[in-house]
Amino acid sequence: ADVAEGKRLGVEGVPTFFINGRKVTGARTKEEFKAIIDEELARVRDAEDLYRAGYHLFIRGNYEEAFTDWALAVERSPNHEDSLQGLMRLENIAERLLREVERDADTTSACRRLEEVTRLTRAKSPLHERAQGGLRARCR
User: Fold this and answer.
1) pTM reported for the whole predicted model
2) Closest CA to 122 of 132, 136, 112
3) Could you report the per-residue pLDDT of 62-92, keeping only the tens digit for each?
4) Contact 50, 69 (CB under 8 A)
5) What dihedral do alpha carbons 7, 9, 14, 19 form, nearest 10°?
């Protein structure tokens, strides 16, 4: 089971370490580990700052700006749980908007919602693709 998990994670030799999701291979000195850990801690601090900024935007209803901050937080620290959960909240809002589009006979209103979904979802996500398809089919 451990070998399979290692292969799944891209481990090709030993020693291999993962520090905040960052793969570190080969023997390292204590100083090298300290430098890597310091870099990753800085990335986590950046992600925390972005999450907090995004959260304040989210509770004010500025979903697009919250999306930008949370997506950047995940870019800086891929395992940043709060930002990942924030992005999931936005996907839930996008899913609701898509359901509203399906019931909406007014093309202008539907197109506005579809455009909002594209701004609240990550490119290439299924929701984003559905919204893009809706825009192509219904709005252009």
Assistant:
1) 0.75
2) 132
3) 999 999 999 999 999 988 999 999 999 999 9
4) yes
5) -170
